[in-house]
Design a protein that fits this description.
Blueprint (H helix, E strand, L loop, with lengths): L1 E10 L4 E9 L2 E6 L8 E4 L4 E4 L1 E6 L16 H8 L2 E7 L9 H12 L6 E7 L5 H13 L4 E5 L8 H14 L2 E5 L3 H13 L6 H5 L3 H17 L5 E3 L5 H12 L4 E5 L1 H5 L25 H11 L5 E2 L32 H11 L5 H15 L17 E11 L18 E11 L2 E5 L2 E2 L17
Parallel strand pairs: 1-4, 1-5, 6-7, 7-8, 8-9, 9-10, 10-11, 11-12, 12-13
Antiparallel strand pairs: 1-2, 2-3, 5-14, 14-15, 15-16, 16-17
The protein binds N-(aminocarbonyl)-beta-alanine (URP) and zinc ion (2 copies).
One zinc ion (ZN) binds next to loops.
């Protein structure tokens, strides 16, 4: 099967050129001006941007939190991803039973994703305890299972202590694997949570007040120190929500530390005043870290622009407002943490980033696709428009204006945080390995067509 995409404005993280792309059997075979080849399909991309498919390296499909299960599974979540122009995800594996092996949860997640996903997918492993068995198992997981990054938490039930983090990072660094970290200081959170709950201060705003910026800053600072002591092991800070934490990442990079930074659309577009919405609507925004004060937003954009923040991923972790989120009525601490966003990431960043001239089209490609693919070992198969790469391609119409309504989205959840946001530009075609899976609002893919990606180690 062959396809030619004609006359597009082809954007990579480095270049913008007008031309054609020729695809054969799912692979990009030729890129250039006025390519003359016979092909089964022709797509006219005149006046459109043609970009590499989005790579979302922070999702929580099917996540079991204890009190609730995230309501997008690997089918509904990846259909929504495809509509929003994302063609690969790397999902964060949830915690398993106490003391389980690394492979245990990877097998569980293969069970969740196989025959369901419609775009290609990988998994970040999770380190929930550390002992000799876990340390020895890492090599097998990295080299044989194709899982080359692992998440650790500094809070929640299976948080790790510093000595275990050092052991973990030392070994993962030797293997070339990346340690991704949820950075919040657990003691600070516990103190403030108890402080507010014991005074009957339980409405959604106290979720934010009980997780102050300093808790994130302290944890990021500590992780940069521990990564350095572990031999400059690769460290990836997930969901940076504050300017101060980003400043720490900037300084670490200046000091040649092997640190990468991620933020998410919610920290660029939403702020903590939303927790005070009437009718308990503040519960929609209960996520960790919480939404912050608005002044952070412009500074986070600056850190995207200067390369401190390498990636914008979603942390997609949806719960219905009318069901699971209601557990938090009368007590914010009972509300499952997380919010949807897998479908709106590229449209928001294209409209508010590229069209509003906060970032170039090349930076847009870099933060949504190329850099995450490189950091997490999906590159060059994913993350670029390049000869030999998978033809994971998104066509964006910069003239298509959309007002976001939850009704038009495909996330399996009853709200979006971006209701009524007005966007300039929207993805109109999503292609995965040469197959058009979304075209003009129609899903054309098949359940289960997505393939597991055996990732290599980082290419940055
Ligand atoms: O609130 C959030 N972000 N929930 C998902 C799990 C995590 O901490 O990333
Ligand atoms: Zn997290
Ligand atoms: Zn997360």
């Amino acid at each position: 099967m062959s396809t030619i995409i004609k006359n597009g404005n082809i954007a990579t993280s480095e270049k913008l050129l007008k031309g054609d792309i020729y695809i054969e059997d799912g692979i990009i075979v030729d890129i250039g001006e006025n390519i003359q080849r016979d092909s089964d399909n022709i797509i006219d991309a005149s006046n459109m941007y043609v970009v590499p498919g989005g790579v979302d390296v922070h999702t929580h499909l099917n996540l079991h939190t204890g009190s609730a299960v995230a309501v997008d599974d690997f089918y509904t979540g990846t259909v929504a991803a495809a509509f929003g122009g994302t063609t690969s995800i790397v999902d964060h594996i949830g915690f398993g039973p106490q003391g389980c092996s690394l492979k245990h949860q990877i097998d569980v997640y293969h069970g969740y994703a196989d025959n369901k996903a419609v775009v290609d997918y990988g998994f970040h492993g999770v380190i929930q305890h550390v002992d000799d068995h876990i340390i020895n198992e890492m090599k097998y997981i990295v080299e044989k299972e194709g899982v080359t990054s692992f998440k650790i938490y500094l809070t929640y039930d299976f948080k790790l202590e510093d000595q275990d983090i050092l052991r973990t990072m030392k070994r993962l660094g030797e293997l070339g694997a990346v340690t991704a970290v949820h950075c919040e200081n657990d003691g600070i959170l516990n103190y403030f949570r108890n402080f507010y709950l014991s005074r009957e201060m339980k409405s959604p705003i106290y979720h934010a007040l009980s997780r102050p910026e300093e808790a994130e800053e302290e944890a990021v600072n500590r992780m940069i120190t521990l990564a350095s002591l572990a031999g400059n092991a690769p460290l990836y800070i997930v969901h940076d929500s504050t300017a101060k934490a980003a400043k720490l990442i900037e300084n670490a990079k200046k000091n040649k530390r092997n640190v990468f930074g991620e933020t998410c659309p919610q920290y660029l577009f939403l702020d903590e005043t939303l927790y005070n919405k009437p009718d308990n609507e503040g519960l929609k925004y209960i996520m960790s870290p919480p939404l912050r004060k608005k002044f952070n937003q412009d500074i986070l954009w600056k850190y995207i622009e200067n390369g401190t923040l390498d990636v914008v991923a979603t942390d997609h972790c949806p719960f219905n407002f009318n069901k699971e989120k209601q557990y938090g009525i009368g007590d914010f601490s009972k509300c499952p943490n997380g919010a949807p966003g897998i479908e709106t990431r590229l449209p928001l960043l294209f409209s508010e980033g590229v069209m509003k001239k906060r970032i170039s089209i090349n930076k847009f490609v870099d933060i949504t696709s190329t850099k995450p693919a490189k950091i997490f070992g999906l590159y060059p198969k994913k993350g670029d428009i390049k000869i030999g790469s998978d033809a994971d391609i998104v066509i964006i119409d910069p003239k298509k204006n959309m007002t976001i309504k939850n009704d038009m989205l495909h996330e399996n959840v009853d709200y979006t945080c971006y209701e009524n946001f007005e966007l300039q530009g929207y993805p109109v075609i999503t292609m995965s390995r040469g197959e058009v899976i979304v075209e003009n609002g129609q899903f054309k893919g098949k359940k289960g067509r997505g393939k597991f990606i055996r990732r290599s180690v980082s290419k940055v």
